[in-house]
Amino acid sequence: MSATDAPRTEIVDLLNRLAYAADAAPDAALATSYQPYFTDDAVWEMRSESATDRRTGIDEIMDGVMQRRRIGRNGPDTGVRHHITTVVVEATSDESWTATSYYLVTGADGLVRSSGRYTDHVVRIDRRCRISERVVQVGAPTPPSVTHDRAAD
User: Fold this and answer.
1) How many CB atoms lie within 10 A of CB 80?
2) How does pLDDT run across 23-67, given as a tens digit for each residue?
3) Contact 137, 44 (CB under 8 A)
4) In angstroms, what is the C-alpha Rg of the chain?
5) What is the reported pTM?
6) Contact 50, 42 (CB under 8 A)
7) Closest residue by Cα to residue 108 from 136, 84, 76, 138
8) Does residue 120 contact residue 99 with C-beta atoms inside 8 Å?
9) Which of 98, 114, 125, 137 could join 105 in a cystine, given CB atoms 3.0 to 4.6 angstroms apart?
10) pLDDT reported for residue 14
11) Buried-state track 33-51, b at ≥16 Cβ within 10 A, e below 16
């Protein structure tokens, strides 16, 4: 068994649960369904061609979650869904790992709205894996050939 085998399932589960919470958890439940997946001093950073949004500490991260919900970018009533795929987990020490994955974000209509890459630095605290840093690298817009509504043809 390699250093990544034991926590791989736990880390993939962590990433999936975080995506579900971002998409479906009611605002009142975020403190128990989203926040616990991060360390208290975590860093969350979204990079795109035009801007970088960096949040340091769980309070700033949670403020960012609420801001994105207020403008309809995610949340239970938006129909937005985060799809995580191609997860690679590499050990960086006995108690830390880097998980790299691709993501697609779909809208209520099922069309791809965004795609990119997550790079998550994961640490074990009190026998649980948590994200200490998440970098979201937003990719180029999805080509029209992928999002074209073929039913309209």
Assistant:
1) 21
2) 999 999 999 999 999 999 999 999 998 899 999 999 999 999 999
3) no
4) 16
5) 0.86
6) no
7) 76
8) yes
9) 114
10) 97
11) bbbbbbbeebbbebeeeee
